Amino acid sequence: MNFDEDRLKAYNTPEECVDLLAKGSSNGGIAAVFDEIPYVKLFLANYCLKFATIGPTYKTHGFGFAFPIGSPLVPDVSRAVLNVTEGEKMVQIERAWFGESTCSDSSTSLSSNSLGLDSFWGLFVMAVIAAVLALIIFLTKFIHEHWHIIRRFNLSLRERSRILARKNL
Questions:
Q1: Each residue of 60-116: pLDDT tens digit?
Q2: Contact, 55 vs 112, CB < 8 A?
Q3: CA distances for 94 relative to 53, 75, 90, angstroms
Q4: How far apart are CA 153 and CA 39, in angstroms?
Q5: Which residues cross the membrane (predicted)?
Q6: Angle, nearest 10°, between helix axes 88-98 and 73-86?
Q7: pTM score > 0.70 for this model?
Q8: Radius of gyration of the chain (CA)
């Protein structure tokens, strides 16, 4: 991740981590913690009023199995891992090991830098304006080039449309 090795600090206890976070990176502490999910959950179980996780967390990142090519076990094991990590069983395991959270989910209460449709409203407005201007320019140019056909009063609208269609095909 291209972190400067001199700025990385190890800690041994949750209390030491709290102290480093409280100091901040400008005062010899740290600005963020990167750790395994179980350790972060255990840390937040005690300090969720002061700290929060931000961004997506991946439960199975760095976790895998190796099978011989063509093994019939692959789909069954993959399905079983997904069922456990995404199902009610994982919630039960987390409750058993980490207990019930005394804090609300702090990661949902903080704003995120992720993009949504509402992030692009200005871009949508500019695209609509550009499309309307292009249509106006096209219609103005078309009418100017074909004014001699459009202004004929002795032809019906249907006849004028047919003549214009034949000329532009």
A1: 555 677 888 888 888 888 888 778 777 787 778 777 876 666 665 544 444 555 677
A2: yes
A3: 16, 25, 6
A4: 83
A5: 120-143
A6: 50
A7: no
A8: 32
